[in-house]
Design a protein that fits this description.
Layout: E1 2-10, H1 12-16, H2 21-34, E2 38-44, E3 51-57, H3 60-72, E4 76-83, H4 86-94
Length: about 100
C-alpha cells in the first residue's frame, strides 16, 4: 500500500467543538478501515498545522475520497501528501537515467 501524510487544520466549527474531536477521530479510523486504508499514526502538533497523520491506502483515489469525506463534515481541512518510503526512494533514484 502507498503511504500518505495528512496535514490537518481545524476549522472554526472544529475548534468550537474540540471536545468532540476524539469521537471524530474514531469515526475517521473506521472510515479508513471501511475503504481498505489504515490510519497508522496520529499527532496533535503545534505550528502551522493542528494535526499530522500518517496513513496507508491502496491508491490515490481512495485517499482523495477519504479527504473529501473528512472535509465534508466541516470540522477540519486537509492537505494530503504522497510519501515514499526509503526503499521506494532508493528505487526511484536508482531508475534515474
Amino acid at each position: 500500500m502507498a503511504t500518505y501524510i495528512l496535514l490537518v487544520h481545524y476549522t472554526q466549527k472544529g475548534i468550537e467543538n474540540i471536545k468532540e474531536s476524539p469521537a471524530r477521530l474514531d469515526t475517521v479510523k473506521k472510515a479508513f478501515q471501511a475503504m481498505g486504508a489504515e490510519l497508522k499514526e496520529f499527532y496533535l502538533v503545534m505550528g502551522q498545522y493542528d494535526i499530522v497523520c500518517v496513513c496507508e491506502a491502496p491508491d490515490d483515489e481512495t485517499v482523495a475520497k477519504l479527504g473529501l469525506s473528512i472535509g465534508s463534515a466541516g470540522a477540519v481541512r486537509t492537505e494530503t501528501l504522497r510519501a515514499f518510503t526509503e526503499d521506494e526512494y532508493r528505487k526511484i533514484i536508482s531508475a534515474l537515467p
